[in-house]
Structure formats: structure tokens, C-alpha cells
Amino acid sequence: KKLAQINARADSASEKPMFRSAFKKRRCLVLADGWYKWKANGKQKQPFFFRMKEEVTMLFAGLWETWDDEEGPVETCAILTTDANDLTKEVHNRMPVILAGEDALAWIEPGDDKEHLNALLRPFSPDKLAYHAVDTLVGNVRNNSPDCIKPATSLF
Length: 156
Description:
mainly beta; single chain; 3-stranded antiparallel β-sheet; globular; 6-stranded mixed β-sheet
């Protein structure tokens, strides 16, 4: 099966045919410095960068899959998303599932106790996160530099 989407809804991933097998057997942690979300203001959109206040790296709950195409095996990954917490909902109604400590270890442990695993997939504490507006240059994949996370000098 292909994981053709980069995100999967945490509230339904264990049941959806596209993610069900990976949820049972191929859970992973995706290391990240942060993530971007865009907030619409009329016809314009402002990107924002979310990050941890203290730690540099965070762990997103993910699912992985290997499938074959004409050129051979392809490995794909989807990040699980959940409802936004009180901080992130100011910009968007969804956020990645961030796991820490024992929750991160429990996510990658073998086993398929759906109830236990689903309990891990909740919004992360807003007290540990921060965000700021960034330049729209993040909207182009060719832009891959520290400038992508610098605070924007102007909004919209």
C-alpha cells in the first residue's frame, strides 16, 4: 500500500485502509525543528513557524510504508496530525502530534494496542511551544536556508 499523503489524521488513522496496517506495525518518530502553517487574511496568507521554546528538536508521530513502483521500492512517511492546542489554533485548526519522553517510546514499541496508541495522539502542551510569522519565501521548495525561519519584517 502507498502512503501517498504526507499527513494523516490521528483520530482516524488506525481505521482508514490507507494507514491501518502501518498504524499496527510501522510507527515511527519524525525529528523536526518545527513546522509551518499559513493563516489566511482575505486573499493573502501569512506563514508562521512553530517550534519548541526550550529544546531544538521535537518528535512527530509518524507512519511509514514501503511499496514498489516501476523503478523499485519506495519508502514513504506520513505525519499524524491532531486538533490544534490553545496556542496553535490562533493560526490553524490542526497541528502535528508531538511526542516526548515515555510517550515517544510507547509509540515506537512493538504492539498494536489501539486504545493505548490512540491515547498518545493528543495536542501537545501549548506552554512548551512558540511561534512567529516568517517570510513567504518558505512557500517555495527551492528556498532552503536559515532565512526560512527568521521572523518576518512585515506581515501580509
